[in-house]
């Protein structure tokens, strides 16, 4: 498979744009929970309430994209691992910490102003420390606290830690072993979904790690198979049909198989245009994910003051979706990008 490794360095902008679809689905899910704007709308409501599976798409995409970026230059030894981790943490931690401190300020301000804070035990010191260190998704707590969507970043951090070792195995593995890994991952997802038939794959603080690693490793294996040129485009296109089939059958694992096909199909898409608003929003996906909790706080306040009808709730959903994308893009542009540049400049100076 080594002859095709240089394909890993190629930019695949369709994967970046796919992030917008995935994060949008997750946001619709989180907005639908308090708003119930799609209640009674049948399949549309069902699709919205399965939006947590957008996170599974991100887990697949995370492993897939990392292999594309590093298979041709795998981190070597402890120094390589340190360099890889530094690059990952520089992207994630500054934005995560700023959002966490901003949320702390918001909670303190709300308390000072006399507002009742729902479930105040969520905002304790222990939970804050666990979240600041991104350890809250490692079976360390059962409390969805502070910036609770960041549990996904916590398990992704575990993936970053393991990635160089996993990559070494993936690079050395023949196609047959990679296909076997995909079968094992699929069986594992069906088994995990059967642990709690009501939750299916919606495991977060508990069993979030196995959910992540099954999909992360599957994404890595798929990327190596794409680099080897053994996945026909037509097969990937046909596999996308598993998404609506899985939604209709109400089987999360089937939906995830379809999302895996969607990731592969996006990677095989022709074109290298990195312009346009969808590409920019895709680049800002971390920011979008981490800023949602602030938009949610505003929506909760609005729902305390007024009781909108269905039309009003639909407007709030559209407004919340747009506001989160805008806030996330601003956070990406103002915090994530400058922080990465600053730390990258410091690294270059240290190397010199």
From TrEMBL:
Alphabetical list of InterPro entries matching this protein: Acyl_transf_3_dom, Acyltransferase_3
UniProt keywords, alphabetically: Acyltransferase, Membrane, Transferase, Transmembrane, Transmembrane helix
Positions in coiled-coil regions: none
Gene Ontology molecular function, alphabetical: acyltransferase activity, transferring groups other than amino-acyl groups
Annotated organism of origin: Falsiroseomonas algicola
Residue ranges annotated for the Acyltransferase domain, each copy included: 15-332
Protein name according to UniProt: Acyltransferase
Residue stretches spanning the membrane: 51-71, 92-117, 148-168, 175-195, 207-226, 238-264, 284-302, 314-335
């Amino acid at each position: 498979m080594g002859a095709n490794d240089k394909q890993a360095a190629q930019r695949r902008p369709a994967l970046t744009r796919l992030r917008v679809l995935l994060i949008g689905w997750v946001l619709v899910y989180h907005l639908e929970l308090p708003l119930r704007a799609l209640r009674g709308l049948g399949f549309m409501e069902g699709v919205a309430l399965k939006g947590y599976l957008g996170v599974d798409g991100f887990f697949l995409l995370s492993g897939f994209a990392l292999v594309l970026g590093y298979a041709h230059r795998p981190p070597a030894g402890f120094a390589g691992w340190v360099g890889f981790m530094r690059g990952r943490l520089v992207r994630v931690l500054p934005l995560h910490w700023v959002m966490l401190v901003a949320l702390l300020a918001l909670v303190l301000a709300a308390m000072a102003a006399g507002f009742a804070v729902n479930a105040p035990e969520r905002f304790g010191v222990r939970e804050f420390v666990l979240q600041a260190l991104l350890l809250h998704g490692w079976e360390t707590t059962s409390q969805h606290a502070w910036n609770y969507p960041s549990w996904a970043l916590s398990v992704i951090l575990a993936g970053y830690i393991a990635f160089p070792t996993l990559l070494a195995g993936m690079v050395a593995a023949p196609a047959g072993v990679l296909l076997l890994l995909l079968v094992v991952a699929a069986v594992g997802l069906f088994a995990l979904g059967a642990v709690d038939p009501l939750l299916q794959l919606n495991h977060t603080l508990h069993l979030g790690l196995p959910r992540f690693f099954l999909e992360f490793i599957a994404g890595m294996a798929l990327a190596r198979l794409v680099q080897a040129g053994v996945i026909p485009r037509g097969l990937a296109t046909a596999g996308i049909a598993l998404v609506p089939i899985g939604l209709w059958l109400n089987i999360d694992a089937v939906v995830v198989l379809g999302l895996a096909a969607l990731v592969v199909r996006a990677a095989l898409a022709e074109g290298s245009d990195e312009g346009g608003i969808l590409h920019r929003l895709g680049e800002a996906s971390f920011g979008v994910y981490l800023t949602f909790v602030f938009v949610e706080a505003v929506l909760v306040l609005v729902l305390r003051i007024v009781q909108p009808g269905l039309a009003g709730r639909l407007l709030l959903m559209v407004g919340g979706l747009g506001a989160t994308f805008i806030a996330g893009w601003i956070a990406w542009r103002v915090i994530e990008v400058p922080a990465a540049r600053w730390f990258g400049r410091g690294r270059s100076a240290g190397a010199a």
